[in-house]
Each structure stands twice: as structure tokens, then as C-alpha cells.
């Protein structure tokens, strides 16, 4: 028997390294006319590195003490920024104290008790920097900042160009990061509609606003913070290799081999299959 076109398309997508979860999901990929992309871990590789450690002058901490404190609070987090902070502390040979009462707030940061004091690491929204900047506080008092940068994925500019060609409009960039870090990635990928400092619910609102205006939105993301937007979109695609479990579960399709260029490829596969479905 010949396979129905949408099932062949799923098999084909699998050969490209994209796991499409159902025939309906395959079909919806071909219906999209607008794309919205997360930045960190989607257009960028998601393996940031700490590039600066800056204790505040009136804190009692030096660089190593600040980094060790942040790493202790981040130790239990799976967020790419957390992994980078812990890796930086380890590479300096610093001792990472055990932490208790760990909590993570998606799109915001983490808090934990270290040495009897409450330490948080998270958004520094007044950051005026090309880098991602996170603020470290101890018992509510700011003690320093860390700057982190992430490399653009090799396929990012070609992918945004292909999505623009497929939909007739350039993708929208939706990120929790600061405006200048977002602008740096937007410039490198030819995007002009950039929305920064978004909370997870703001990403949902951005997707819903586009859909209320009649658009069918494809959202591509990787983080726990992206899960609500993946669910709200007409079609949600998650980056699989470093993606959070929640994003992978929520998405309609998962990019298993981490190649961003497969996003436009599966949209084309779906469109071709839908032409064959009568
Ligand atoms: P994005 O939308 O760019 O993928 P997130 O929504 O995951 O990013 O995070 C948005 C911002 O929240 C980050 O740029 C950072 O400032 C802060 N943040 C989130 N999680 C953490 C964490 N574990 N440690 C430090 N900062 C964090
Ligand atoms: Mg992300």
C-alpha cells in the first residue's frame, strides 16, 4: 500500500532529524504564515559563557567569591545560563557550597539558601549591554552582576531568510533577554520585529495577538519559559538537544538533531504533502 501523504511527510521529516508527533501536527506546519522565534537556545547555540564577573564596589565580595556564590544558587538549575555559571566557577577551581530551598522561576531566575543567606540570580532589566546580564543579590541586597554571551547558531541567518521567503514576512524575535542582547542577534539574522524582556506569559500574548490578527503562527523555542507559547501557537517546534523536557512535551514537533535549517524544510514538506491530500 502507498502511505498517505502526511504520513510519508512525517517519515521524511524524521530523515531530516525532525520528530513530528502526529499527522495533524504535520498538517498544521504547512498552514503557518508567520513565525516567532525565541533567541537563547534557538537562534543561539544555548551554551553561553561567562564573560565578566563584576562584584559591586560596596559588596565584600571579590570576583571569585561572587562567582562561587552565584554558582551555589544555580547549581540545581538546568537553565543554560545556570550551567554556564557553574562551569565558570569550576573552571576557576572554586568550591561550590551546597544550597537549600532551591526555587527556579521560568524567565526570571533562581533563588536558594547558601550558608544561611538567601541568594538569587536573575534578570537585570536595566542592563545596558550587548551581553546577557544577570544580577546576584544576597538577602535582597545586590552584590554584583555576571555577563554571559552565547554564539549564534551557524544556520540562523539562512533559516530566518528561508522563513521570510516561505511566509512573506520576517520572523518576530521574542526573548526574555535584554533589548541590546536581543538587537545584536536580530541584526545578525536580519530581523527587525524584536520584543525583549518578555516573561513567559508575554511570549504567549505576543503569539495570541498575532493569531487574533488572523495569522497562523509557528513558534520555535527551547526553554521551560517557551512552553506556554509553544502550546498557544498554531504550530510549536522545540529544539531537542538542549531543550527542556517541558518544551519537548508541549511542542508539535521536535528538532532532534539541533539543525535550525530543518524548520523551513519541514514547513515545505508539509505544504507538499497537503497538496497531495484531497
Ligand atoms: P530567553 O527567552 O532569552 O530564552 P529566558 O526566558 O529563559 O530567556 O530568561 C530570560 C532572562 O531571565 C534571562 O536573560 C536572565 O536574565 C533571566 N534568567 C532566567 N533563568 C535564569 C537563571 N537560571 N539564572 C539567571 N538568570 C536567569
Ligand atoms: Mg530559549
Automatic annotation (TrEMBL):
Signal peptide region: none
Annotated compartments: Cell membrane
Family the entry assigns: Belongs to the cation transport ATPase (P-type) (TC 3.A.3) family. Type IB subfamily.
Protein name: Metal ABC transporter ATPase
Organism: Streptomyces resistomycificus
Coverage span on the entire protein: 319 to 596 of 657
